[in-house]
């Protein structure tokens, strides 16, 4: 099992400068590799250059520019070229799938924030002393940097990454661990229905309120972004405004993560099986297609884009994708079972008689079966139907 750890680093002034130079030089390597691929395809009879060919050139690049490229880890530079190769692989995959291609773009120095080290001990070294209050990580060309290790690292460290977020520096580790011991069985099962009014509703009738962290911070974020738009590019005042906006976004992101972790942990501790909807969040948050007006060439009919934009903001603010990812990870660690079921008609099917109709849900919250008269909260009905579908799917699964 692979687990990730993220710790805050506390570099000195000189180490901060060296870390910034490391990001700058890796960004230059990434952009140079991208330019080489573009030129080879355009001017050399559509020749395709791959990672292996660019990796072989690293020795020459390091010898030609020892001050900028020769001082950093060879393995980290290979990882940067692999990142470029993955970007092209994703580009060709999208073309084959008929999606918007999104050709890989050049990276600005301010938007290249991560350097990866594929193996601990190769260009970097994590201090693995378990009881030492002072933890350090060494990077080639930077030195030993102090780390605020707020929890112990279990297992053998495999990869190390440096990440910049605004003015803060983090080290991200992946460690290989043995299979964890499963939690004691509780004998309870649950279905959950994701929503906007309530973050989630369980088949037992419990509602977890939606914290709406983004909506609560919208006023401060709007004011900070408006102040940023007034600043002159390249000025010190603009850098401060950018830092303030980044700080507010970071706070919202951490609030979402905290809420997702706590909610997922409560579910994993209480239930052996968790049934949930197999949501296609990207499709749910797409903008509606425009409706051309046949009577007015060049004109368009109302398509509800304004209301859909508000719904899309609410979906993004709820953070369903992050929560589901965390829930699956915690369930795997605890030995719990998570089953995703088809979400269609889960809130329109009567749990008592099985009648399915759009009219069964007259409002967002109310469920009233037009066949048998059963009345309940629509989200609770959806969670019940999700649980039943999950149990059916578990029984039908091959042993």
Task: Please give a structural write-up.
This protein has 399 residues and is an alpha+beta fold. It has two domains: 2-176, no CATH class; 189-396, no CATH class. It has helices at residues 13-43, 51-56, 58-64, 74-96, 213-216, 218-230, 236-270, 281-284, 305-318, 320-334, 378-396; strands at 2-10, 114-117, 124-126, 135-139, 143-148, 156-165, 168-176, 189-194, 198-202, 207-209, 273-277, 291-292, 300-301, 337-341, 366-368, 375-377. The relative contact order is 0.10.
Q: What would the keywords be for this entry?
A:
2 domains; alpha+beta; five-stranded mixed beta sheet; globular; 11 helices; single chain; seven-stranded antiparallel beta sheet; 399 residues; 20% strand
List the SSEs and their pairings.
Blueprint: E1 2-10, H1 13-43, H2 51-56, H3 58-64, H4 74-96, E2 114-117, E3 124-126, E4 135-139, E5 143-148, E6 156-165, E7 168-176, E8 189-194, E9 198-202, E10 207-209, H5 213-216, H6 218-230, H7 236-270, E11 273-277, H8 281-284, E12 291-292, E13 300-301, H9 305-318, H10 320-334, E14 337-341, E15 366-368, E16 375-377, H11 378-396
Parallel strand pairs: 8-11, 11-14
Antiparallel strand pairs: 1-5, 1-7, 2-6, 3-4, 4-5, 6-7, 8-9, 9-10, 12-13, 15-16
Helix pairs in contact: 1-4, 6-7, 7-10
